């Protein structure tokens, strides 16, 4: 599979100067335009690091037992640490938002489309910014938190409510922790290198400057970095869903490495063809 990772120019977080300043009161139209333009686009921010388990996903504040969670099926995949703008206009999800405003402002976003149906594994979306409009629509900025698996569907109306169990990547089977960490670090380094090469060649084919890619990893530990990489595979939600469902950081990084390697081979071949048969001004204008 050949995929072009969609790398955000900035890593948005609630403290970022580029993060829209939304509240429940009326704000300037530029915030609405910002959300409309970026509705349903994933952008990733650096997740919090964990003192005891640096490769863990952000932990939910609920009990470690399974819990009830409202579900929002969408044809996209959310990852832990990712930032997602959303517009809420359907009546049943406006009801959900009114409920969430009086509780903990978290719901489960789960991938669903007409061909594959609704997935069993999703990601908690925490509403970190919101704006309620006069027509009762909502503009939201959500951040991906913890992964979950639906264990039981409790109701379908007015919106889906499910019993969910939390997912965490399994620790590697190696007994040598240093060797395990070295393997994960090596895989993460390989993935970052392939991403940089893919970006460089993609820029070249699109007539952009072949400048060195930014520091893509940004000091992320392997697990949150693997989620960041997966979030850049926009346009391939089923592949993203498969990556979300993996419970092994090394397996996720290996799959991303293979995908990026195939993409790099494709771009290298396309670049070679372009060098041999460059477009002439006359052919490009016709």
TrEMBL record:
Sorted UniProt keywords: Coiled coil
Domain spans labelled Lon N-terminal: 66-264
Ranges of Polar residues composition bias in the record: 53-64
Disordered, as annotated region: 45-64
SMART domains: LON (SM00464)
Keyword Transmembrane helix among UniProt keywords: no
Domain of life: Eukaryota
Coiled coil: 199-270
Protein name: Lon N-terminal domain-containing protein
The species this protein was found in: Stephania japonica
């Amino acid at each position: 599979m050949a995929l072009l990772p969609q790398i955000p120019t900035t890593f948005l977080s609630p403290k970022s100067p580029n993060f829209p300043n939304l509240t429940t009161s009326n704000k300037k139209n530029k915030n609405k335009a910002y959300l409309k333009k970026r509705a349903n686009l994933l952008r990733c921010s650096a997740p919090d690091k964990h003192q005891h388990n640096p490769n863990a996903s952000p932990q939910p504040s609920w009990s470690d037992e399974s819990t009830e969670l409202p579900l929002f099926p969408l044809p996209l995949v959310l990852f832990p640490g990712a930032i997602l703008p959303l517009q809420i206009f359907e009546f049943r999800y406006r009801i959900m938002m009114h409920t969430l405003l009086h509780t903990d402002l978290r719901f489960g976003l789960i991938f669903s489309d007409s061909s594959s149906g609704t997935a069993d594994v999703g990601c908690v979306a925490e509403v970190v910014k919101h704006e309620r409009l006069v027509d009762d629509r909502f503009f939201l900025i959500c951040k991906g938190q913890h992964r979950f698996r639906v264990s039981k569907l409790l109701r379908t109306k007015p919106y889906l409510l499910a019993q969910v169990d939390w997912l965490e990547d399994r620790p590697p089977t190696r007994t040598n922790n240093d060797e395990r960490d070295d393997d994960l670090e090596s895989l993460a380094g390989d993935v970052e290198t392939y991403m940089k090469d893919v970006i460089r060649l993609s820029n070249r084919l699109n007539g952009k400057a072949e400048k060195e890619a930014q520091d893509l990893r940004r000091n992320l530990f392997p697990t949150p970095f693997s989620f960041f990489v997966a979030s850049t595979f926009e346009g391939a939600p089923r592949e993203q869903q498969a990556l979300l469902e993996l419970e092994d950081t090394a397996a996720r990084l290996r799959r991303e490495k293979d995908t990026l390697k195939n993409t790099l081979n494709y771009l290298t071949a396309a670049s070679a063809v372009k060098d041999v048969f460059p477009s002439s001004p006359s052919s490009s204008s016709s």
